């Protein structure tokens, strides 16, 4: 017998959480787009070494680079469970956690032009 407040659909609701754009954020010092790209490349090159499945990391990278609608389709089709709607915390179907820094998801408010 289940509790009156329980729901069998709870897991399904979590897995279909709708994505949203990350909130505005500020880098500790003004940064150029070239520097952001370098940080992103370094993150994506090393991320699979910290656990999880390479296929999920690849899907998260594709989603991070896509517009919100395509990103939603990517995470849904890859079976990614989005714990935070801005994609900073995600899980795969086996329970492995994937933490994404804001700099791979959006640009900071103090972005400066490359010289």
Automatic annotation (TrEMBL):
<feature type="domain" description="DC-UbP/UBTD2 N-terminal">
    <location>
        <begin position="16"/>
        <end position="114"/>
    </location>
</feature>
<dbReference type="InterPro" id="IPR038169">
    <property type="entry name" value="DC-UbP/UBTD2_N_sf"/>
</dbReference>
<feature type="region of interest" description="Disordered">
    <location>
        <begin position="1"/>
        <end position="27"/>
    </location>
</feature>
<dbReference type="InterPro" id="IPR039869">
    <property type="entry name" value="UBTD1/2"/>
</dbReference>
<dbReference type="Pfam" id="PF16455">
    <property type="entry name" value="UBD"/>
</dbReference>
<protein>
    <submittedName>
        <fullName>Ubiquitin domain-containing protein 1</fullName>
    </submittedName>
</protein>
<dbReference type="InterPro" id="IPR032752">
    <property type="entry name" value="DC-UbP/UBTD2_N"/>
</dbReference>
<feature type="compositionally biased region" description="Polar residues">
    <location>
        <begin position="1"/>
        <end position="10"/>
    </location>
</feature>
């Amino acid at each position: 017998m289940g509790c009156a407040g329980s729901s069998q659909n709870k897991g399904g609701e979590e897995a279909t959480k709708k994505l949203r754009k990350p909130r505005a954020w500020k880098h500790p010092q003004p940064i150029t787009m070239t520097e952001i790209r370098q940080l992103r490349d370094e993150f994506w090159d090393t991320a699979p070494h910290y656990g999880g499945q390479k296929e999920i990391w690849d899907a998260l990278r594709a989603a991070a680079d896509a517009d919100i609608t395509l990103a939603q389709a990517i995470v849904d089709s890859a079976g990614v469970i989005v714990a935070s709607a801005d994609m900073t915390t995600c899980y795969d179907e086996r329970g492995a956690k994937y933490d994404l820094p804001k700099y791979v998801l959006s640009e900071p408010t103090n972005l400066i032009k490359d010289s």
